[in-house]
Amino acid sequence: LELVVHDSIEEVAGINHFKIFMDKIRNMFSCSPKNSRELAEVAKGLEEQMLKIGRVLDTRWVASSLMAVKAVWTDFKALYNHFIEASEDKQRDSKQRSTYKGLCSTLSSTTFVHNLALMFDALEELSDLSLQLQKSSLNLIQAHSDVTLLIKVFENRVENMGRRSVEAKIAIDDLMFQDVKLCVRSKIPSIPEKQFYRSLANNLTSRLLSSSNAAENYTKIM
């Protein structure tokens, strides 16, 4: 699965920018006990997830990336408020305040909310498939069927948004997400939803051989 999505990351614009930003959030807290303690005070669950996970969209990334994206989605308001307070904290030097201001600016952009929702929807589906493929009771025919089903889900997503993307669209239209005012920032690249899902479906399909050759296909996907 990691190879499938790696291909999509290479093909679809905007994903690398999202990855870099998520890693920047993680590094802010994993490299500083002080920052980690401050985050824990406002969002304990987010702090725990950001420290436990690896780099987003890195090797064997499906489960850990879902945890990170879900944590930011769930504690979005708390994270935003923390960034705002840190950017105005006179006890921090100007470089730190500027860094937090930049993080806050990106986090509160309509584009980031769109990207966050899109990645949440896609990662959730991929994580579910990953868990299915790890079951010891799973046979090759069922594995082949599960992958085929996910391909159909992604093909459907080309025209029909996932649940979080629907929520994000409403928030973007209202310029408000979890009581945080959103701003349009054209410099932040948006992940093209249709292209992303089409790429995922195509890359899964390219690695999925015929049912008669399911054993070889299963090995490639795992």
TrEMBL record:
Tree of life domain: Eukaryota
Protein name as it appears in the record: Uncharacterized protein
